[in-house]
Design goal:
The complex is a heterodimer of chains A (259) and B (391). Chain A is α/β, with parallel strands linked by helices. Chain A contains ten helices and seven strands. In chain A, α6 (145-155) links the parallel β2 and β3. Chain B has 391 residues and is α/β, with parallel strands linked by helices. In chain B, β5 (125-127), α7 (132-142) and β6 (149-152) form a beta-alpha-beta unit. In chain B, α9 packs across α10 (243-254). Chain B starts with a helix and ends with a helix. The chains are: A alpha/beta (259), B alpha/beta (391).
């Protein structure tokens, strides 16, 4: 597991470099989900970077599009494409679009959401497939009505589907509990007939354990408690939906012990 | 047969060959999705009222290779965000919108803006079938094309107009041909357009009627060729200007000409569909008026293009209009017809004689034109014929 932490650290460094170069993008949210993505791509998902369209692969639908830099960096580290491409993030004519794009190998859908993950999981169920479907969501997305349509629907269907929630507690205008409180998120899910597991969103072994446990249970939401900007002191716990400056990049990389 | 039943039949027919899945948001009974659900419960997903969720689910299923039909009362306003995602992903989902236009009558709430809304999205095919036969054919044809498709139908049984038609998505069908005006219609308005065209023949006005079932992608070639031949266009649809705008964009950019749009521009109210159509201007009568306006404008426009004296020999045997006035050449006759009152016209053109035709034949020796004019017994029909000739 020490190796996975090391991969996560390298991904964080890449995120800082990518966003600084792009001069835009959401640093705090991207850093927050790195350990979840590493747990998925290096510990959980049945996938093959050489065959992104492999039919038996597990599906991951990323609903919180602003973490695209973290997703792209993880995919590159997993071997889907060359790491040098990461620095083209958000550049004109790069396939690394600001929001997760199917131009990038390994990305399942443009502007995905839980409903699309449900549809994919339903198709798998109809066809007797064994793969699992995951949906990564931000906590603040739970302020949107159509997400609750999907949560209500899933609660009454037995699907091989797990949602993983990045409970970083920040959104565009501030902290979720100040903007429009979400608590108790657990009770809300339970009331919608879901199984809920809460875990530390930066402890990779715990995340893997939680996802494994979820697979054997009824439809489960894993609430991952994360720290916005995790790993960089001046971004941690801040509402920091922007890119680092050149000077900030230097400090951030030093903190991440970049060589 | 109602179009919704025809679509349900069509889907049952193709389930053998296509991996069909049908979704419904709690209106399976009224949309007839239930007909399918009874035969193939394993291929049917009841979504409850989660309509936005339903479109998302449809996209997820389609991504995994299913041929998905989401059948609901037409309401793309609610699911527009999801349709945009479908458009971006070129997701292979088929959406059937029933009870569109004024067809839900007494409910008092009507879906009118669906065609206009959906038309703004890329990649989406939009079909408004003219009757139950065409609705069935459209539902079947949609299984073969790839990409998001929106099929909108009315609630009630419509008069049959396409029983023997070939149906191809994206290929407009010419139902009748005429030289005076092109009427481009979709959905139930195709029948009204045919009625209007038939009644106009009694006034010697001949129309081309096109069943433009596919609003997107538009069959530009067929529409434009016909419009250029007739020199004016009327569109007719039971919706806000969806078809009308599509045709206006085409005509405005490729071949500007007089045009009238018959469409809905007001929210509806309770009433029978017939009462509402009469009130909101969606009948054959309204189409007839629009056709005559468009033809008149076409005739007037030619006056500015062709000066009265230009290139036309003035005769020394002028036409003397009853009650005063002299016509010296053919453009002059054209102009006089546009301003002449009907009583004067009837003194020269009635069942016993056609002075205009006789004058053209004897003075100008234009036999073909004279023959054509001889058949026309109304001012507008005669002016339209002269407009074509002058061009």
């Amino acid at each position: 597991m020490k190796d996975l932490s090391l991969i996560a650290n390298h991904i964080r460094q890449d995120i800082i470099r990518m966003l600084t170069r792009a001069e835009s993008g959401d640093t705090a949210s991207s850093l927050a989900v790195v350990d979840i993505l590493v747990a998925l791509y290096f510990g959980i998902l049945k996938h093959d970077p050489r065959k992104p369209d492999w039919k038996e692969r597990d599906r991951l639908f990323v609903s919180n599009g602003q973490v695209a830099p973290a997703l792209y960096a993880t995919l590159a580290h997993a071997g889907y494409f060359a790491k040098k491409d990461l620095l083209t993030l958000r550049q004109f004519e790069s396939r690394l679009q600001g929001q997760p794009s199917t131009l990038v190998p390994g990305v399942e859908f443009n502007q995905a959401n839980l409903s699309i993950a449900i549809g994919s999981a339903l198709a798998a169920k109809m066809d007797g497939k064994t793969h699992h479907t995951y949906c990564l969501l931000a906590d603040y997305e739970h302020q949107q009505g159509n997400l609750w349509e999907a949560i209500l629907f899933t609660g009454s269907h037995r699907l091989k589907l797990t949602t993983i929630i990045d409970r970083s507690g920040i959104q565009a205008d501030g902290h979720t509990e100040d903007i429009l409180p979400l608590e108790s998120l657990r009770k809300k899910y339970e009331a919608f007939n879901w199984n809920v597991i809460e875990t530390d969103g930066h402890n990779i072994p715990h995340i893997i354990e939680a996802i494994e446990e979820a697979k054997n249970n009824k439809t489960t939401a894993i609430i991952c408690h994360t720290t916005p900007g995790k790993g960089v002191s001046f971004i941690e716990n801040k509402v920091w939906h922007k890119a680092p400056t050149k000077a900030q990049e230097k400090i951030a990389l030093a903190e991440l012990h970049a060589t | 047969m109602q179009p919704r039943d025809a679509i349900a039949d069509g889907l049952l027919e193709i389930t053998k060959h296509h991996d069909i899945v049908v979704l419904s948001p709690d209106n399976a009974e009224s949309t007839r999705a239930k007909t399918f659900a009874k035969k193939h419960p394993e291929r049917f997903i009841q979504c409850g009222k989660t309509e936005q969720n339903m479109i998302g689910i449809a996209m997820g299923l389609a991504k995994e290779g299913k041929n998905v039909y989401a059948i609901s009362h037409a309401n793309p306003g609610r699911t527009f965000e999801q349709l945009k995602i479908a458009s971006i992903n070129n997701s292979n989902i088929k959406i059937i919108g029933t009870h569109a236009g004024l067809s839900s009558g007494k409910e008092g709430i009507h879906t009118l803006e669906d065609i206009s809304l959906v038309r703004t999205l890329q990649n989406i095919t939009i079909i408004a079938p003219a009757d139950a036969h065409e609705a069935r054919k459209a539902a079947i044809a949609a299984a073969i094309i790839h990409g998001p498709t929106y099929i909108r139908i009315g609630r009630e049984k419509q008069p049959e107009v396409t029983k023997n038609s070939q149906f191809t998505i994206g290929k407009a069908e010419i139902m009748t041909t005429g030289k005076d005006c092109t009427i481009i219609a979709c959905g139930n308005m195709v029948h009204e357009a045919l009625q209007a065209a038939e009644r106009l023949t009694k006034q010697d006005i001949e129309c081309t009627v096109i069943n433009n079932h596919t609003i997107k992608p538009l069959d530009k070639h067929t529409l434009l060729s016909s419009a250029k031949l007739t020199g004016c266009v009327v569109t007719a649809e039971e919706a806000t200007n969806g078809l009308g705008n599509a045709v206006a964009e085409l005509i405005g950019q490729q071949s500007p000409m007089p045009m009238r749009i018959i469409a809905l521009n007001k929210h509806g109210q309770s009433g029978t569909p017939e009462e509402l159509r009469a009130h909101y201007g969606l009948t054959a009568d309204h189409i007839m008026t629009a056709v005559k306006e468009a033809i008149l404008q076409k005739c007037e426009n030619i006056c500015t293009i062709i000066p009265e004296q230009h290139g036309m020999i003035e005769t020394s045997f002028p036409f003397r209009i009853s009650g005063g006035g002299i016509i010296k050449n053919i453009p002059g006759l054209h102009r006089a017809l546009l301003t002449m009152d009907d009583t004067t016209f009837l003194q020269h053109c009635n069942k016993n004689k056609n002075d205009f035709s006789t004058w053209i034949r004897e003075v100008f020796k234009k036999e073909t034109l004279a023959e054509e004019l001889e058949k026309k017994k109304t001012r507008l029909a005669m002016a339209s014929t002269l407009t074509r000739w002058l061009k």
